């Protein structure tokens, strides 16, 4: 059934086409479109429920995959799921460098990604790992941080969700950390990935640069752990970092939303039991 649920985007798109080309009012084509839309949305809902974590497992200690001062957004310390259970994003987190240009209401409508300090920042392996897959060809688009940009990104996100996950992830890298744990780096800068599928990487090795590809309003890193290599069927896993906040206090866990922090060298990893 999971392989069927993955096709929900095609079903929704087919339903939308039926409604748009219909010229006969509430006739057979219109009802077919409505049925396809409802069916596609139910398939997406089933897929999301199927990706809810089944068991509570200890978080995996990792090195923070960035350097310098960053801000956490949409993270598991503030709410779970931090994003959605769909695409194994239950415990995902977004990271962006600060300070950065402030969001605006009307003007400028968009900025070039180079205007943000996150863009081009190096990203590092959080542990020794094997590279599972790499995507590196999608463009880095303009930001969507104005009122008009945010309205646009709502429609854009819906359209992107109808296709394969790569349209949401943008350029990305998937790592196999061992013991059934996989890490995802998303929204990477175009042509910045320095590894290839099958490569063995060491903790702290540069993987790529932060970008603004895929479903991204401003340059940032989307990071998550999951229990399988297929993002459409895996379930999210928790992680823990050691970091220092702006008051100089050290913490272990995940930084809360809107917290600015800098990495602290991680402790040796504790034994981890995969779910």
Automatic annotation (TrEMBL):
Coiled coil listed as a keyword: no
InterPro entries, per database record: Cell_wall_metabolism_enzyme, Dup_hybrid_motif, M23ase_b-sheet_dom
Keyword Hydrolase: yes
Domain M23ase beta-sheet core: 162-226
GO MF annotations in UniProt: hydrolase activity
EC numbers: 3.4.24.-
SUPFAM superfamilies for the chain: Duplicated hybrid motif
EC supergroup of this enzyme: hydrolase
Gene3D superfamilies linked: Glucose Permease (Domain IIA)
Top-rank taxon, per record: Bacteria
Keywords: Hydrolase
One protein family per Pfam: Peptidase_M23
Name listed for the protein in its UniProt record: M23 family metallopeptidase
Organism of origin: Streptomyces bikiniensis
